[in-house]
Design goal:
Elements: H1 3-6, H2 15-27, H3 30-42, E1 49-54, H4 58-69, E2 73-78, H5 86-94, E3 98-100, H6 107-118, E4 124-127, H7 131-139, E5 149-152, H8 155-167, E6 174-176, H9 181-204, E7 212-216, H10 220-231, E8 235-239, H11 243-251, E9 255-256, H12 259-265, E10 268-271, H13 281-284, E11 291-295, H14 305-310, E12 312-319, E13 322-327, E14 332-336, H15 342-345, H16 352-376, E15 380-382, H17 385-399, H18 408-415
Parallel strand pairs: 1-2, 1-4, 2-3, 4-5, 5-6, 6-15, 7-8, 7-10, 8-9, 10-11, 11-14
Antiparallel strand pairs: 12-13, 13-14
Helix pairs in contact: 2-4, 2-5, 3-4, 3-16, 4-16, 9-10, 9-16, 16-17
Length: about 425
């Protein structure tokens, strides 16, 4: 069967616009372009099947094409129902990649599309949030018959995978791309910081300057969100459960409060924790009228929507990607993008130049696990430092930046403990 005959997408006629989006992204991804040329020559995935689950937009599409250029038969699905772009899906199908994804399918259909993408019985996977890994362990273990391993994109996914490893249930090796320097230092910090406010500003058309922005969680994503909020002129409040990170936020110049106090002053809220129920009933009860809630963690559980609904007398859509929860006491609380990832569900995600390094790590990480899966075993491992450094070097080359190298004498000095 052809990719078109095998795929489930919204409309193949949307492909021309999708090609334009992918072409624009690829023109701004020089590191991935360099790896594509390497893959075309070396064919590291020749004869292998690769299933990808990521936010299915133009930058992800180009990663899929790079893996395909390395000889793989590629199948792709979406990792979030609201971040899938139907025109990009259609363009990929025209390029010979099998796609099982639509924008905003029903929850059960969304999972079924994920399962369909795994029915090719892949040799390798690229996962986002651990959804494919969970299906392969719980729902369809029969589909991992050929599986050598894969690479995981996010904090949330790595948490799930390490929980499996701790329980002794993880059945294949996974490379923790999220924990690589060239991922969290740039993607999590600069990518999330910019794209969150791209999504908020596009959706609300409201000013950030002078407002109080509450950033829930001060990991690398939270640091980026706080930095960009400050740059836009906001008063920034950080909430944390980790004492070290709370001190760091304080030393970075931000107000640190418990959520029950932050809830009283916040006007914009951004959750970036990877955990559930960080904002819940007792917090809604003290929020200001007009407070705006957004989530930049992986799943739509970081603020408790059922508890917000229980406090409300009415829920209505007031603008694309904005729902108003009218509380019984007359206050309104607004939820962006149904509590899903605001930067992707209400925007285009991270800038292409940022995802260039992240997806370069995904491509090289996938090559690494394919070459080393037997020695890695059933565990979560980090991206080798050499690959991390290689991606950074490619990035510097693309920017026309050169750096110093240690002399032989300097290397010898660092390797020695004796005094001269």
């Amino acid at each position: 069967m052809t990719a078109l005959e095998n795929s489930i997408i919204r409309d193949i006629a949307l492909a021309p616009e999708g090609h334009l989006k992918i072409d624009w992204a690829s023109a701004h991804m020089p590191v991935l372009n360099r790896i594509r040329k390497q893959f075309e020559k070396e064919q590291p995935f020749k004869g292998l099947k690769v299933t990808i689950s990521l936010h299915l937009e133009a930058k992800t599409a180009y990663l899929a094409k790079v893996v395909q250029a390395g000889g793989a038969e590629v199948t792709i699905t979406g990792s979030n129902p609201l971040s899938t772009q139907d025109d990009v899906c259609a363009a990929l199908v025209e390029d010979g990649i099998t796609v099982f994804a639509k924008y905003n399918p029903e929850p059960q259909e969304f999972k079924e599309l994920n399962i369909k993408a795994l029915e090719s019985k892949p040799d390798l996977i690229i996962d986002d949030g651990g959804d494919l890994a969970t299906i392969l362990h719980n729902d369809r273990p029969d589909l991992r018959v050929n599986l050598r391993g894969g690479a995981e994109e996010t904090t949330t996914g790595i948490i799930r995978l390490k929980a499996m490893q701790k329980d002794g249930t993880l059945q294949f090796p996974m490379v923790a791309v999220n924990d690589a320097f060239c991922k969290y230092l740039f993607d999590n910090r600069y990518g999330t910081g910019q794209s969150v406010f791209d999504g908020i500003n596009r959706t609300t058309n409201l000013v950030v300057a002078g407002k109080t922005v509450v950033v829930v969680g001060y990991g690398w994503c939270g640091k980026g969100v706080a930095m960009r909020a400050k740059g836009l002129g906001a008063n920034v409040v950080v909430t944390e459960v980790d004492a070290i990170k709370a001190v760091e936020a304080y030393m970075d110049g931000f107000t640190v409060l418990p959520m029950i106090e932050a809830a009283k002053v916040g006007e914009f809220f951004v959750t970036v924790t990877g955990n559930r129920d960080c904002i819940r009933g007792e917090h809604y009860e003290v929020m200001r009228d007009g407070a705006i809630l957004s989530n930049a963690g992986h799943f739509d559980v970081e603020f408790n929507k059922p508890e917000l609904a229980a406090l409300s007398s009415d829920i209505r859509k007031v603008r694309h990607n904005i729902e108003e929860y009218k509380l019984k006491d007359g206050r309104s609380i607004y939820v962006l993008a149904e509590g899903r990832l605001v930067n992707l569900a209400a925007g285009d995600g991270h800038p292409a130049e940022i995802m260039d390094t992240t997806f370069a790590l995904q491509a090289l990480g996938l090559k690494y696990v394919n070459e080393s899966y037997a020695s890695i075993g059933k565990q979560v491992v980090n991206v080798p430092y050499e690959l991390d450094n290689q991606v950074a070097s490619f990035k510097l080359d693309s920017l026309g930046i050169t750096i110093d190298k240690l002399t032989d004498e300097q290397v010898a000095y660092l390797d020695s403990w004796k005094e001269d």
